[in-house]
Design goal:
The structure is a single chain. The chain is mainly α. Among the domains are: about 1-10 and about 110-205, no CATH class; about 15-55, no CATH class. Helices cover about 45% and strands about 10% of the residues. It is built from 9 helices and 5 strands, in the order βαααααβααααβββ. It has helices spanning about 20-35, 40-55, 60-65, 75-85, 90-100, 130, 135-140, 150-165, 175-190; strands at about 5-10, 125, 195-200, 205-210, 210-215. The protein has a 3-stranded antiparallel beta sheet, with helices on one face. It has a two-stranded antiparallel sheet with strand order 4-5. Helix 1 (about 20-35) runs antiparallel to helix 2 (about 40-55). The radius of gyration is 19 Å and the shape is globular. The model is unreliable at about 220-228 (pLDDT under 50).
């Protein structure tokens, strides 16, 4: 199954400036990192740009008011159990202090059930749409970068597919539930001003580092996952 992940692009804060410029410069440096190992100066610039981008944009967890770990009455017991299996230099108290304010993706109602959880709970593995939908117009929308308006348009198109039952069943997943969750994902994040960038992960070039290439998706014969 072709791997296509819908990555969320964070919306700018109300008073933010030059967010589009930051995104373009980050993309340029990431692309350069697939062609050569970034030198120390380039790497420092990239990290600074990413930090600025985070400051000037709204995170998914913030946008939807996602629960924090400490919101769970049993959070301490959970965190202590995690700590026992975690390779960390922090002592237990330091670990608990850090963990309590982190987003609780396991309990978040907005985490996508069709994602590479827990790595990317706010993304959607959309590649199966290319298997179960034959309409070429809808298939093109699946792999196009979308603003909020275009995300709603695709959600409407998928709703039509659902109502008219124009999809093919496949053994890997419940196609009807998958379509409903795709519609929910698109409408939810469009409502909060996010955009979507589809990434064909199987086709991505790895990032080159001094320790060797990182990422990319070599063909190892394994099926692409769509469930977490």
């Amino acid at each position: 199954m072709k791997r296509v992940d819908w990555h969320l692009i964070r919306p700018p804060r109300a008073d933010a400036r030059e967010v589009a410029t930051l995104e373009r410069r980050i993309d340029e440096l990431v692309q350069r990192a697939t062609e050569k190992v970034l030198d120390a100066e380039e790497l420092a610039v990239l990290l600074d740009l990413e930090e600025l981008h985070e400051e000037r944009t709204i995170a998914a967890c913030e946008a939807v008011g996602a629960p924090k770990v400490e919101d769970d009455p049993d959070w301490e017991s959970r965190a202590i159990d995690e700590y026992a299996d975690t390779d960390t230099d922090l002592d237990l108290e330091e670990y608990l202090d850090a963990r309590r304010v982190e987003p609780d993706c396991e309990r978040c109602p907005f985490a996508s059930p069709y994602s590479l959880f827990p790595l990317d709970p706010c993304e959607f593995s959309a590649g199966a749409l290319l298997r179960i939908i034959s309409d070429p117009r809808v298939r093109r929308q699946v792999v196009d970068t979308m603003n909020a308006r275009e995300m709603v348009a695709l959600a409407d198109a998928l709703d039509e597919v659902l109502v008219e039952r124009r999809w093919e069943e496949i053994v890997e997943l419940d196609a009807e539930d998958y379509l409903k969750k795709a519609v929910f994902f698109l409408r939810l994040w469009a409502r909060h001003g996010f955009r979507v960038r589809p990434v064909a992960t199987d086709d991505e070039a790895p990032i080159l580092t001094p320790g060797g290439p990182v990422g990319g998706s070599p063909d190892d014969g394994e099926p692409s996952p769509v469930l977490h």
